[in-house]
Amino acid sequence: MSKIKIIKFFILTATLILIFGCKSIEFQSALIYINQQDDWKKGIELLEKALKKDPTDPEIHILLGQGYAMQEDYKKMDEAFNSAMSFMTDSNKTNKILKEDIEYLRDDFWCYSFNKGVENFENNRIADAGIDFSNCIIIGDKRAEAYINLALVEEKINSVESAIEHYEKAFQLDHKNIELMFYVADLQNNSKNYQKAIEAMDKVLSVEPGLVEAITQKAIAYDYLGETEKAIAAYQKALLNLPDDTDLLFNLGRLYFFEGDYFEAIKNFQKVITQKPDDAETIAFIGDSYFSLGEDIMIEIQEFNENDSIEISQQEIEAYKNQAKEYFNEAISNLEQAIELEIDNPDVWNILAIAYSNVGLDKKAKAIFKNEESLKR
Question: What does the DSSP assignment read for 104-123?
Answer without folding.
Answer: HHHHHHHHHHHHHHHHHHHT
